């Protein structure tokens, strides 16, 4: 019951994140296209496409982390997990989830100060403070923390794409 609720929330949150990621990627492609057209055809010498592309890419990469967590496609110890008995595997997965949560909470905690420091810095080319761009760090870390908790509750220490018993193929690896 609780796992189903966590799964539903995780899926909805991930769907919203992926819509934002798609919009960021469209904006990134258009921005780079404008930069290329400017450089090779019109010679407008626009100063902002390269800078904007950098910040769009940072936002997209940071937000994509939570999508990977929601799908359990983040870095894992699959080779080790395949050779462990189910109870030990469950304990290890819960431990990995807790360490992942701790890491992203750490990034969130210090990322807030980092984003606040961006309010004092100017992106001269864009004519804005760097705070909205620096906010990618704590925003993505907070989203990752939420997804880790939802995935941990959803899976209860089981990685759904792994068999319940150690495989003979994994034993030789």
TrEMBL record:
Record-annotated membrane-spanning stretches: 20-40, 52-70, 91-112, 132-153
Pfam families cross-referenced by the UniProt entry: DctQ (PF04290)
Classification via InterPro entries: DctQ (IPR055348), TRAP_DctQ (IPR007387)
Keywords noted in UniProt: Cell inner membrane, Cell membrane, Membrane, Transmembrane, Transmembrane helix, Transport
Superkingdom, taxonomy of origin: Bacteria
Keyword Membrane: yes
Subcellular location: Cell inner membrane
Membrane topology, from the record: Multi-pass membrane protein
Domain Tripartite ATP-independent periplasmic transporters DctQ component residues, every copy: 32-156
Function: Part of the tripartite ATP-independent periplasmic (TRAP) transport system.
Entry's family note: Belongs to the TRAP transporter small permease family.
Assembly and oligomerization: The complex comprises the extracytoplasmic solute receptor protein and the two transmembrane proteins.
Record protein name field: TRAP transporter small permease protein
Native source species: Tritonibacter scottomollicae
């Amino acid at each position: 019951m609780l796992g189903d609720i966590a799964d539903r929330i995780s899926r909805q949150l991930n769907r919203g994140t992926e819509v934002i990621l798609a919009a960021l990627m469209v904006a990134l492609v258009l921005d780079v296209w404008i930069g290329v057209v400017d450089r090779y055809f019109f010679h407008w010498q626009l100063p902002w496409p390269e800078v904007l592309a950098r910040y769009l890419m940072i936002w997209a990469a940071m937000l994509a982390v939570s999508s990977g967590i929601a799908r359990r496609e983040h870095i894992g110890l699959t080779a080790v997990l395949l050779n462990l008995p189910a109870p030990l595997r469950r304990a290890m997965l819960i431990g990995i989830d807790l360490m992942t949560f701790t890491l992203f909470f750490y990034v969130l905690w210090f990322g807030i100060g980092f984003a606040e420091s961006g309010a004092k810095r100017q992106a001269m080319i864009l004519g804005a403070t760097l705070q909205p761009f620096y906010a990618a760090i704590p925003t993505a870390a907070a989203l990752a923390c939420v997804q880790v908790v939802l995935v941990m509750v959803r899976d209860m220490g089981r990685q759904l794409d792994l068999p319940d018993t150690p495989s003979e193929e994994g034993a030789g690896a």
